[in-house]
Amino acid sequence: MQKKTEKGTFGYLNCNKILAWKKAAFMLSVPILIFLGAWILKGTRENVMTVVAVVGCLPGCNQVVRAILAGRYASMDRSLYEQIEAVRGDLPVLYENVFTSYEKNYYIECVAVWGREVIGYSGEASLDPKEAAEHIRRMLKNSSYKQQVRILKEPEAFLKQLKKMAQTKPEPVPFHGDDRYPGADRDEIVVHLLQSITL
Asked: 6 lies in a domain?
């Protein structure tokens, strides 16, 4: 059995893609088996279990949609991951993020949290970095966390900025705890909020 990779870690998207299709297959096979079993036992399709099977297909169909969406994204390049790991120090980072909105999704390979700043890198050609940054900033602000968000498109610039941030302490941010996240510091909460708005 393949070990499940946690959200925000390297390899998550490829693992999630496989898992999503396995779930879809399982969720659709149960109602199909119910339908076929009832048909064999009753000798006709016209029975109550046909209705149960049709209704039972709805969660499976929903899972197929999720699997199709998950299939659109692949895990980031391993060499970039290794370069980031080499320079990030103790900075909290999230890998392979697909930030979702009603209008579109934003694939950002890596985001790091440093005090009031969130910095990210995306190599996706169609991604508008300002639009993606504004979406993330707005979502964090809706949860009462004001952050400056920047998304970079050049891996060298991102690695350079990440190294600089890892070597210096951020400006202290006044923080008195959050009742919604007992015991968590501000950076941990921001990381959790970022995870909650990704696929």
From this structure: no
